[in-house]
TrEMBL record:
Pfam family membership, one: CMD
Name by which UniProt lists this protein: Carboxymuconolactone decarboxylase
Domain Carboxymuconolactone decarboxylase-like span(s) in chain numbering: 26-92, 160-238
Stretch forming the signal peptide: none
InterPro entries referenced in this protein's UniProt entry, alphabetically: 4CMD/NDH-1_regulator, AhpD-like, CMD-like
Molecular function, one GO term: peroxiredoxin activity
Gene3D superfamilies: AhpD-like
């Protein structure tokens, strides 16, 4: 009887494992659309990068209604300055302040959200940034520097110590959310296909599906323009073809 009991427990465990794996696979297979929150990130980042502040206001309202917290939207603005500069970032923040004041005057109370956690890591900022970048791209970064990093070594240091350490270590946004901000900005400013190619590949590595990235291009088309969306789609198709 004891042996039968043991066999029954093993069978139950196998069944649970099977259905757990099947459930996980189904979740991945149905992960074909961006969430409402993810969708709202795209126009906020893209319109801020373009400096289209009047269009940005309804996008900010939509983001808050979709569940983005005040701190998450502030973090989007902070993140994108690394890709489109302080002037656009600061104007975006100022516009967001106006939107919050308008909502407060209407009696709307928005969730503040969490602040960035304290960083308890004794590694140098360079090593932290290098590790973060390796996680994003899914491979190690060893060997001599090449291309622009060899031509201007200081920018490679800035990228790892500041962008991929100071900014990416802040946990207000996930890596996946940060990459969505990044590709939105790059699409909006245009003429940066090599960088867009790299970050779309990172998007795939951090969990976005091809369907979600095609949806992203559709949002760029409706909020930024057909020209920018066409250029983004060409790069995305190239990334997907190379992946296969």
């Amino acid at each position: 009887m004891k042996e039968i009991g043991k066999l029954a427990l093993i069978l139950i465990a196998v069944i649970c494992c099977f259905y757990g794996t099947l459930s996980a696979q189904n979740t991945m297979e149905t992960n074909t659309t961006l969430s409402e929150k993810q969708q709202s990130i795209v126009p906020i980042a893209a319109l801020t990068a373009k400096g289209e502040l009047e269009q940005l206001k309804p996008a900010l309202n939509a983001g808050l209604e979709a569940g983005l917290t005040i701190n998450e939207i502030k973090e989007i603005m902070v993140h994108l300055y690394a890709y489109c500069g302080f002037p656009r970032s600061i104007r975006g923040l100022q516009t967001f302040m106006e939107v919050l004041d308008e909502r407060k005057a209407k009696g709307i109370t928005d969730e503040t959200g969490s602040d960035a956690s304290a960083i308890n890591d004794e590694r140098s900022k360079y090593d932290r940034g290098k590790a973060n970048l390796e996680e994003l791209i899914g491979r190690t970064l060893d060997g001599p520097q090449r291309a622009y990093a060899a031509f201007a070594p200081v920018i490679e240091i800035f990228l790892k110590e500041h962008l991929f350490s100071d900014i990416f270590d802040r946990d207000v946004l996930s890596y996946a959310e940060r990459e969505l901000v990044t590709v939105s900005v790059i699409c909006a400013i245009g003429k940066a296909e090599p960088m867009l190619r790299s970050h779309l590949a990172i998007c795939l590595n951090v969990g976005y599906s091809p369907e979600q990235l095609n949806e992203f291009v559709g949002i760029i088309k409706s909020t930024v323009g057909k020209k920018e969306a066409k250029a983004a789609l060409a790069v995305l198709n190239e990334v997907l073809d190379n992946r296969e």
